[in-house]
Amino acid sequence: MGGALATLSKPVPVADNVIYVKKGASADYTETLTTTVKLIVIGYNATRTDEPTGANRPTIDGENSRANCISNSGNGSIFKHLICERGTGAGITHSQTTHFNNVRCTTNGTDGFANTQNGGSPSYRLCESDANTSDGMD
User: Fold this and answer.
1) Pick from 19, 42, 55, 113: CA 20 to 30 A from residue 36's CA?
2) Alpha-carbon Rg for the chain in angstroms
3) CB of 53 closer than 8 Å to CB of 75
4) Cα–Cα dist 108/88, whole Å
């Protein structure tokens, strides 16, 4: 899919889509990204090939009003270079095998990363989880 979208929830993702999420000027995305299919979601700052760190990663902001920033049940999904903050529940809920690279979950109402089925083989590479009310990774 070419071009940029102002929202993460439209169009509805199709299995094996690659979704590029661009860093914005303020709180980037104030919605919940809900996926039920295998996706690759990659955050970037200036170009799709950069690998932003720190505050240069795109933010999915729950604004203390949405349960989770990301809710994923697509087996084999990959999330890279994102910040998920201020969800009233977890920063990210996931099931089965989900892979995370350079993702930060911060200031969420429960866990940073919550494996809802306690199954599969999730992987976390260069991830951060801080200032969440409960566990960093559950």
Assistant:
1) 55
2) 13
3) no
4) 6
